[in-house]
Amino acid sequence: MSTVVSEAKDVAVTSSYIGGRWVAPEGKTSQPIVNPANGETLAILPYSNAADVDRAVKDAHRAWLEWREVPVVDRVQPLYRFKTLLEKNVREIGAILTRENGKTLEDAMTEVKRGVQMVEVACGMPSLMMGDSLNDVAKGIDCRTIRQPIGVCAGITPFNFPAMVPLWMYPFAIAAGNTFLIKPSERVPMTPTRVVELLLEAGLPAGVIQLVHGGREVVEALLAHPLIKAISFVGSSPVAKIVYKEAAAHGKRVQALGGAKNHLVVMPDADLPQTVDAIMGSAFGAAGQRCLAGSVLVPVGDVAEPLLDLLVKKAKALPVGDPLEVGIQVGPLVSEDQKKRVLGYIEKGVAEGAKAICDGRSVDADPSGAFVGPTVLDHVQPTATVAREEIFGPVLSVIRAKDLDDAINLVNSSDFGNTTTIYTKSGKAAREYQSRVEVGMVGVNMAVAAPMAFFPFAGWKNSFFGDLHAHGKDAVAFYTEQKVLMTRWF
Ligand code: NAD
After folding, report:
1. pLDDT, tens digit (0-9, with 9 covering 90-100), for 83-134
2. Among candidates 53, 85, 37, 378, which has minimal Cα distance to 228?
3. What is the three-class DSSP state of 463?
4. Ligand 1 pocket test: which of 160, 339, 448 has the largest number of ligand atoms within 8 Å of its C-beta?
5. Torsion-angle region of residue 321: left (phi > 0), alpha (psi -120 to 50) or beta?
6. Closest by alpha carbon to 277, among 318, 238, 236?
7. Measured distance CA(151)–CA(177) in Å, rounded
8. Which of 15, 62, 155, 373 could form a disulfide with 22 if both were Cys (CB 3.0 to 4.6 A apart)?
9. What is the rounded CA–CA span in Å between residue 55 and residue 36?
10. Which residue's alpha carbon is at the smallest distance from atom 30 of ligand 1?
11. Is 358 a catalytic residue?
12. In testing the pocket of ligand 1, which one of 161, 257, 291, 452 has its CB within 8 Å of the most ligand atoms?
């Protein structure tokens, strides 16, 4: 039985790690993992089912009874070694990621490094988990709080950050004394499998981590399993909503991060060359397949014409192609299906009255790859489909606003509220924007306002269902339960 091989070119079986063993469930559903840049089959993924989930959860529970007794300073030791192993293998993990996901190698390696930062922060768990104390809350009575692990936690993750998003979850959960079951996206299973291999190589005791590959059946079994205490989900909004409801109905705590429709507002006083560079990174980086990708461009007042002239000139020149090749800035979408979906949105945008001033429908790249070039749709109406729905491709819809109020009203009319950025030289305009927009992560003159590991990460509205956000101190609160201890000695 092989786990995913590091030579990502070999067709390997991508195994699950259940009950302290690498296993490839046989005779059940399986699917090929395809390189979206050229259609090559990279691996076969056998799906686990509800019985596999039950075995994994029971083993994780058994392991938890011991792991929670291990002092936190000892629990973080494998994570320190894990960090070093990740750093040593950044390029290899990046190459696997690029092959199965399609993002450029440089972007993939940046993703892995972002993941390493999560591990670094989780290594601070001895300080992060500390409670409060106050002596003499009444005469001779002392009071303190402690944080305790909650049990078996599970994570369900999307295709677009197969290295980083699982690392938003299990380093924090494990360091806090929980055991963890990860169910990665079935579209990109090789990267998270390689990362779990490194975690095991770092010396994490068997059972503390379980890796269960599969689709909806696995997710449904996780949401209903009585031994799972907490669910962390990252993916599209419709699935996030289902996960939130189902997990809560089964008495679990849940954080469910959903989709996005992110607005980039450009004020007339913005620094145009800097702003255009930031917009390009935001809208077309990772072929627009980021939950923080700019998707609606909102030029305010008379900035529209000069902004769009420069943007379109640069967007047309962006190198699209094999994401392993140096210099390429836009790789393929994750799959042929995703390409069809994105092309469908562009068609719909044009049918609803928009003008494709940069048209990525025909692009000079390998026809067997899922390529769509940078696309800018001008004169989009605020009610149009491409103005309201998440496209998840390199497509920017332009909606002009007459002033800052108009722009803020447009942003706040969205069903989503993940991230937004304003480009301006005016501190007053930026401050007002930051204060009034109903969005979880707000940037000023940023390309991608991605909070780092020690800050919380989540949107508002349909971009997030739950209370405690991902990583940062919120992750510590999410993966622990507080207890208040009051003491009086005679
Ligand atoms: P997805 O919702 O299709 O899948 C996410 C996970 O849910 C996968 O593990 C998948 O197996 C599982 N799943 C899919 N359909 C299911 C169903 N019907 N029942 C139960 N489980 C199901 O998302 P995706 O296409 O893999 O990822 C892209 C989406 O994730 C985008 O919407 C993007 O905005 C979002 N995303 C959000 C954030 C954030 O921080 N808010 C970060 C990354 C990605």
Report:
1. 999 999 999 999 999 999 999 999 999 999 999 999 999 999 999 999 999 9
2. 53
3. coil
4. 160
5. left
6. 318
7. 8
8. 15
9. 33
10. 235
11. no
12. 291
Residues with a CB atom less than 6 Å from ligand 1: 156-161, 165, 183, 185-186, 215-216, 219, 234-236, 239, 242, 257-260, 291, 390, 392, 418, 459, 463
pLDDT higher than 90, residue 12: no
Ligand 1 atom, smallest distance to 236 CA: 32
* Dihedral pair phi/psi, residue 465, rounded to 5°: -125, 115
Specify the CATH number for 262-444; select among 1.25.40.10, 3.40.309.10, 2.60.40.10, 1.10.10.10.
3.40.309.10
Q: CA 82, CA 90: separation in Å to the nearest integer?
A: 12
State yes or no: pLDDT of 4 exceeds 70. Answer: no
| Residue 136 backbone dihedrals phi, psi, to 5 degrees | 55, 50
Fold of 4-258+463-487: Aldehyde Dehydrogenase; Chain A, domain 1 (3.40.605)
Domain ranges of the chain: 4-258+463-487, 262-444
Q: Is the pTM of this model over 0.70?
A: yes
